[in-house]
Amino acid sequence: MEENKNASLWEAKREARAVRAYSEAFRAEHGRLPAAYTRTYGCQQNVSDTERLRGLLEEMGYCLTGDAAGADLILFNTCAVRENAEDRVFGHVGALKGLKKKNPNLILALCGCMAQQPSAAKKLRTHYPYVDIIFGAGAVWRLPGLVRQVLEGQRGLVELEASGEGYVEGLPVRRDGKVRAWLPIMQGCDNFCSYCIVPHVRGREYSRPFREVIAEARSLVEEGYREITLLGQNVNSYGKGLGEEESFPRLLRELNRIEGDFRLRFMTSHPKDCSHALIDAVAECEKVCSHIHLPVQSGSNRVLERMNRRYTAEKYRELIAYARARIPGVSFTSDIIVGFPGEEYEDFLETLALVREVQFHSLFTFIFSARSGTAAAGYPDPVPPEEKGRWFRELLEEQEQIGSRLYRREVGRTLRVLLDGPSKTEGTLSGRTESGIIVECPGDPALIGRFKEVKITQALNWALLGEICR
Ligand code: SAH
Ligand code: SF4
Ligand code: F3S
């Protein structure tokens, strides 16, 4: 496996060099390098994959552009987690037809989770034949080879086989920001929650070796990044397959030892694997933010069981209580699915009760979306969409009240904020607290990338306003 991955890296490098020759020829003819536009759908894993795809594009001699209409290559990195995520992609791919007509040399590429799904890939082939390249979520490193083939005159390439090879180390990365960085520590998922497409499209769990993760974190800190978010669908099972001791709490402790002024976050934690050892590590590592994103999905044991989540609402409450006792000022965020097949209003009320009790800083809420190929897609689902919509709004209203009370509570306090960029309002900066809340405050752009004490003066629904103390 290790050897294969090295071979993948070398192949990617060799192919990138071949494409570079085309890019140079393009420059000789047009007086500029070819331009590439990328768009990312879905979660941070995809954002992180796109950063590597952009690194490869640069290595292939493309310059990156924010203007799709002027691009010579357009790449969409797609998501399949809910139907509306897929619909958006199809809509946007449809809109590319005009561009392709105007410029037949335009290369259109589609990758990621949706591309990996057989039904979506088939739909693309039949209804969007002008897409030149389709490749799956595990085939990031294949981009240069596929582009080379298109440049040599081939069209309609589909590469879905290369998934499940784990993570190819050493690919170039073009990161979006200079302050906050994503660091993938694992790929795939073995949990098969009954509603979820991710294990089907992302393949089996694979943990990157300790030394690679630590080396990448070190170089991020050296480059001046101030916040590193460790990424995985289920970071708590990090280390499976690497040997017993290489667990996630140990990884956190090792990363915490890296010298420098930076903080660490991680997502996502699965409650079934969230151990006291992990909570202890969060409590004891001063660089790890006192914030845990712990998706509960439902407060009803009946529903949790049918979701195949493998924990109970009681276990979840116990974890929250333990974390509250161990980590001063800890905050929680969560994901919730409303209207899971067979869920009844009484089940939903249990979710609502749990939400009231835990007091999450914020919630990501979704109405169940049937994904073909998953177990829950075949479950009887008698509750009409309008009814689910009513439950959904009830949950949103409850959370709005909780969120706004928690936000208002911060007014008058002084919080440590990482200033990460200019905000939309002229003369003000935007940043985040340890619990991930956005804070806006007047300030000099020279302060971007610094931690500052900010006195909170006002709470909005989505952010806090404040003034920098020193
Ligand atoms: N690995 C993460 C979640 C990744 S998907 C975890 O286990 O917590 C992000 C969120 O999308 C999930 O937490 C879930 O709330 C939601 N989701 C996933 N599949 C869905 C579906 N079929 N319908 C509605 N929401 C879904
Ligand atoms: Fe999906 Fe469950 Fe895996 Fe999360 S843990 S990605 S919800 S299957
Ligand atoms: Fe979507 Fe794939 Fe992430 S399905 S949520 S982009 S892992």
Q: What do the pLDDT scores average to?
A: 94
Please give the share of residues in helix: 25-40%
**Largest beta-sheet characterization:** 6 strands, parallel
Q: Which ions and ligands are bound to the chains?
A: S-adenosyl-L-homocysteine, iron/sulfur cluster, FE3-S4 cluster
Q: Ranges with pLDDT <50 over ≥5 residues?
A: none
Give the termini distance in whole angstroms.
52 Å
Annotation field: number of helices: 15
Taken from the alpha-carbon principal axes, the silhouette is globular
Spatial order of the strands forming the largest sheet: 2-1-3-4-5-6
**Strand content range:** 15-25%
Number of strands: 19
Structural class: alpha/beta
Computed over alpha carbons, the radius of gyration is 23 Å
Structure description:
The chain has 470 residues and is of the alpha/beta class. 39% of the residues lie in helices and 20% in strands. The chain has helices spanning 2-30, 44-59, 83-94, 97-102, 113-116, 118-127, 143-151, 198-202, 210-223, 248-256, 276-284, 301-306, 313-326, 345-358, 385-408; strands at 35-40, 63-64, 73-78, 107-112, 133-135, 157-159, 180-184, 186-187, 206-207, 227-231, 263-267, 291-293, 331-338, 362-367, 414-422, 428-432, 438-442, 451-459, 464-468. α10 packs parallel to α11 (276-284), α11 runs parallel beside α13 (313-326) and α14 runs parallel beside α15. It is globular. It starts with a helix and ends with a strand. The structure holds S-adenosyl-L-homocysteine, iron/sulfur cluster and FE3-S4 cluster. S-adenosyl-L-homocysteine (SAH) is lined by residues 81-82, 195-196, 198, 233-234, 268, 270, 295, 297, 335, 337, 366, 368-369, 371.
